[in-house]
Amino acid sequence: MKPPFLFLLALQGGLLLVGGGGMLWLGLPLARDAGGAGFWAFALLLALQGLEALFRRLFPASFREAEALHRELALALKRSGASPPFLLALAFAAALGEEVFFRGFLQSLLMAWLGGLGLWVQALLFALLHPAPLRAWAYPLYTALAGLLFGLAYLYTGSLVPGVLAHFLHNAKGFYGLWREA
């Protein structure tokens, strides 16, 4: 595996370590009752798919640019020897690391400081971790709204499990579909 892709895994591992450590520091449980997690994960996944379809329809040129960038990443992954099992591992690492850091730690911390505004701030920071060039300007907006959906799911259920599951499935579908096209 080439260094840029090891960096992606290391980044997600770092988010997991910092987020998990932050949750422990705040006294938040790393796992809560996950009753109904499958239902909420499915509902969240459907909401993400609907949001993506809406953005694809409202901002077609911008979303095509974002998809072209994702195809370039998929091609680079394929050329580096990444296999579908690696893509699943990357999708899971991203889902777990980002949910623990952004929702479990950062959102909890920000909401303690800023109240409901903390939900919005974590979504904005989540979007900043997913940058795009100006020609794909709608992608960060999409990502911020996705971060808001993940944050609402965590706020409503009190569990990271639905967000991790939906985030993983959303990433895995995207990674694998783009890898097959590449």
Automatic annotation (TrEMBL):
GO MF annotations, alphabetized: endopeptidase activity
Keywords attached to this entry: Hydrolase, Membrane, Protease, Transmembrane, Transmembrane helix
BP GO terms, sorted: CAAX-box protein maturation; proteolysis
Source organism, top-level taxon: Bacteria
Ranges of residues in domain CAAX prenyl protease 2/Lysostaphin resistance protein A-like: 84-172
Record-annotated membrane-spanning stretches: 37-55, 76-97, 109-129
InterPro entries recorded: Rce1/LyrA-like_dom (IPR003675)
Protein name, per record: CAAX protease
